[in-house]
Amino acid sequence: MSGEQPEGPVGADVPLRPRPSSLGHAAAGHPVTAVDRTHADPAGSQQPDPDIDIDIDIDIDIDIDPAPPLPVPRGPLNALAVTSLVLGLLLSPLAALFGHIALGQIRRSRRAGGRLERGRRVAGTAIVLGWLGLVAYLVIGAAVWVALTGVA
Hints:
The protein is an alpha+beta fold.
């Protein structure tokens, strides 16, 4: 670094002038820098500078991904549907009964003002398992009856 002072900003010697508003006076007296296309030559006279060409073309291309959608609040899982599924896994015929009741509750919750309960698939699975359990018990019961009575 040499001992020189850095040059000031370009146009620092240009005086501030108030910008006229549509009413013909300075907007609340606040000075605003105006574009002055003149420069001072060494003799001190103001002459237009032919080398200064102010042409600002700003093209900003920002690729912003939109924010991900907020998660939709999910309603509670119907407790009777879960109970019927547990019974269905145990092959209890009560699973079909509880599953049908759970489906009715879930359907009613979908109406206006309901809690929007979930569990239709759970209740449907429990209904199928409950009916399969009932059929299995009937087949096993029929086989035991045939074995005990000797009816062929």
